[in-house]
Amino acid sequence: MNYTMNKENLGTNKVSWLNYYDKIEVLSAEDEIYEGLRAEKKFISPKYFYNELGSELFEQITHLKEYYPSRTEKKLLAEVAPLLSIDFNGINIMELGSGDSSKITILLEHLSSETLASIHYYPMDISFSAIEKAVKQIEADFTLKAITAIVADFITQLKFVPKIKNRLFCFFGSTIGNLNVQERNLFLQELALIMEPGDYLLIGMDNVKNKSVLEAAYNDSMGITADFNKNILSVCNKIVGTHFNTEDFDHYAFYNEDEARIEMHLRANKDINTHIKESEETLFIRKGNTIHTENSHKFSLKHIESMASTANLQIKQIFQDEKKWFSLVLFTK
Ligand SMILES: C[S@@+](CC[C@H](N)C(=O)[O-])C[C@H]1O[C@@H](n2cnc3c(N)ncnc32)[C@H](O)[C@@H]1O
What is the pLDDT of residues 73-108, one digit of tens each? Predict the structure, then answer.
């Protein structure tokens, strides 16, 4: 089946869309959320943060003073853009989890108009609304050869990434840190399998650092991260018909040093009973218990080297900011 659709309202005819969301989601999203809510240690996958409100809140988070990762990565990208050992002429940029596309914008800004006119940009994200907004902005700011927006899950649908030569895969925002070690290894191995010699992979990773800096970044004083975390309950209510009230949960985020990760949870501030859609099943969450919503792993050089060797990728360049808070790593096959 062909999932291509042209969105005429999105500007020039250089923009096309590949929408695979319906193919995987709905049923499997329900199953996935059920599984997490039924588990003894309850969890919801962080990909369900990103409905329209979730994507907006995440964008607000990236501007918060405590949230250093976005601005550190952006500054580093601007510094290293001219130093990357990549020939951008005629390149196909595949950006996984592209969100608002603000990171790729920084790379594009460093290229000549001739080079830009030879580039095909493929943003890929599970959030239609985020990608729609981002594509409009990229179209307004740059004249590229073409843009193909892909609405898909980069974990289960990498097979839909167009099989063409001369690709630069980008994975910014330390989104790789949201995967656990096993998921991360599998994801990188699958990505390495679809990569051809001559393709590049550029990953932005948040580094291990002082606990107080890390914890402040996920507990901002304006409470935006708390709103972002609680919004996942509304997504859950919509998908599986639970009746969670966001006020019955508190945002809880801390650095787990043993696992080198920030953990985000929603902690029940009272005993909670809710039903699952069209089922007699009652879900009970005791006051003080949590639903685990996100891990954000932090990386050291040792982690980066181990990632490369697990996926059989070569590290071509590693860039870090002055404080060594963030890394941009360029891999090749
Ligand atoms: C942490 S944000 C990063 C966004 C952007 N790359 C940046 O650096 O600001 C993660 C992005 O990945 C997307 N995402 C999360 N899980 C995904 C999945 N399994 N498949 C596709 N996109 C996903 C989200 O919708 C969101 O836009």
Answer: 999 999 999 999 999 999 999 999 999 999 999 999
In a domain, 262, yes or no: no
Rounded alpha-carbon distances, angstroms, from residue 52 to 48, 59, 107, 129, 276 = 11, 11, 26, 6, 23
Tell me if 257 is assigned to some domain: no
**What pLDDT, in 10s, does the model give residues 239-256?**
888 999 999 999 999 999
Ligand 1: residue whose CA is nearest its atom 4: 99
Report the Cα–Cα distance between both ends of the chain, in Å, rounded: 31
Measure the CA–CA gap between 218 and 209, rounded to whole angstroms: 14
> Residue 61 falls within a domain, yes or no?
yes
pTM for this predicted structure: 0.92
276 in a domain, yes or no?
no
The CATH number of whichever domain residue 72 belongs to comes to: 3.40.50.150
Closest-lying ligand 1 atom to the alpha carbon of residue 62: 9
The closest residue, in CA terms, to atom 18 on ligand 1 is 153
Contact in structure between 58 and 131 (CB atoms under 8 Å): no
**What is the domain range of residue 69?**
4-25+53-210+300-332
For the Cβ of 98 lying below 6 angstroms from any atom of ligand 1, the answer is: yes
Question: Using CA atoms, how far apart are residues 148 and 150, in angstroms rounded to an integer?
Answer: 6
Question: Cβ of 317: how many Cβ atoms within 10 Å?
Answer: 16
Cβ of 20 less than 6 Å from ligand 1: no
Number of domains the chain contains: 1
Confidence of residue 31 (pLDDT cuts 50, 70, 90): confident
Residues 6+ apart with CB under 8 A from 63: 70
Q: Is the CB of 47 under 6 A from ligand 1?
A: yes
Asked if residues 232 and 266 have their Cβ atoms less than 8 Å apart, the reply is yes
- Tokens at 26, concatenated: 């709905």
Ligand 1: centre distance to CA 182 (Å): 19
